[in-house]
Amino acid sequence: MERSLREKLPGGKFLNVSAVRSKTMASIKGKHGKSTERKLRMALMRAGIRGWKLHPQGIQGNPDVHFPKTKVVVFVDGCFWHGCPRCGHVPHTNSTFWHAKFSRNHERDLMNTRALKKLGMKVIRIWEHSLKNHSSTAAAIDRIRLALEANRRIDQKKKGFPLSPGSGSRVQIDSRR
Ligand SMILES: [Zn+2]
What we know:
The protein has helices spanning 3-6, 19-27, 34-46, 95-118, 134-159, and strands at 53-54, 65-67, 72-77, 122-127. By secondary structure, the chain is α+β, with helices and mostly antiparallel strands. The chain has a single domain (32-159), classed as Endonuclease, Chain A, CATH 3.40.960.10. Strands 1-2-3-4 form a four-stranded mixed sheet, with helices on both faces. The longest helix is centred in the last third of the chain and has 26 residues, at 134-159. It starts with a helix and ends in an 18-residue tail after the last helix. The site of zinc ion (ZN) has 8 residues, from loops.
């Protein structure tokens, strides 16, 4: 653990961690569980979306999915670690530490998003909880599809391909969560 974060803990240690919390912390090793990853993969396949790579190497922030041709990346943000306002609550014990940890994760997310945008990438961030039911999964897939279409269009413009009628730049992409 980094020093700046350890300083937020009394005596530099986790104290009074409940059995439940301890279990939660141990079970959330990575960004999110295998089931979340599987849900996204299945949803993409069901939607007939192709051209993606899972866990691409060498892209800042380690996105979950990358569409190399259209330069779209997708991150699934774990509700606990990324401090989701809807479901990620801050644990009562060692709360100073957790506040610091979550806000730092959030800053890092913003920084990565900005850096990737500068490289001409379209960044989609999806909350882990959105993949837990059909309608919000469908909404997430729609956002991905729109981003893919928009970037494909930009790419065609660059190459000088004629655009089909009515495919102007009216489509607005909302990259917020
Ligand atoms: Zn959430």
